[in-house]
Amino acid sequence: MTAEFVRLEVADGVGTIRLDRAKAMNAISIQVQDELALAAAEATDRSDVRAVVVWGGEKVFAAGNDVKEMADMSYTDMVDRVQKLQDAVNAVARIPKPVVAAVNGYALGGGCELALAADVRFAADNAVLGQPEVLLGIIPGAGGTQRLPRLVGPSKAKDLLYTGRFVKAEEALAIGLVDRVVPAADVYAEAVAWASKFATAAPYALRAIKETVDRGLEVDIETGLQVERHSFAAIFATGDSRTGMQSFIENGPGKATFEGR
Ligand code: CAA
């Protein structure tokens, strides 16, 4: 099946998960959710993808889940669907490679939640983020009640979640909701430049860092440190750890050429 609204474009080690449903402001319909999960799985599986950019194009990141589609859904319809919605966003969060969201324009509701699933967020100076679900009489269902407070802290998250207000790029930067603000025309190129740094890096070390940080955030510090001990010892089984340390001894820091194994 050819995806209609979400595709993976790969160039020079960087995979771009491109949302492209311009007529509906990239609203994340059920079809978009399913295509997003497939694109994330492809980005995970392909060894020529070493880092990922999530991008909705120059005008809008995503204005949220498709309200027109959701409006007709019952409680039991949503019981049956919400796991798949979360699976799609989780599939992005669990890509075992560096992931950056490049946000132009609106990232609202499910769109903001998709951006939260990335490791870092670069925003255009015209970006507007928020969780306006409460204004629809509903709540976030794609991770917003969980990832937002973990990122910006519970009180700032509750302010945004309770009010549904829109946050402009400058405030988003100040509260840590985004990591970098750049001119709108540059946000995708900046994200690709960040992702490109990892095209020749040691992929299993990056993977272990991501898994260890993300697992550690969910558990007490002693358990997190135990996870780190296992990950640290395990990384010594990779060829790249041999190459990296030997290269340092022979040629100094930062000169290793990794084979990615
Ligand atoms: N779902 C479906 N359609 C949407 C949409 C959405 N989330 N957001 C925008 N659209 C549609 C509009 O209905 C409109 O369609 P028509 O041309 O057919 O009328 C078109 O996109 C353009 O939108 P506007 O005319 O409203 O454009 P605007 O520039 O005046 O406003 C906006 C843009 C501020 C993004 C506004 O459209 C808006 O507030 N959208 C809804 C945002 C929202 O509530 N998102 C949360 C959804 S719920 C959710 O995501 C649940 C979850 O946690 C998973």
UniProtKB/TrEMBL annotation:
It comes from the Bacteria. Keywords: Lipid metabolism, Lyase. CDD domains: crotonase-like. Pfam families: ECH_1 (PF00378). Belongs to the enoyl-CoA hydratase/isomerase family. This is Enoyl-CoA hydratase-related protein.
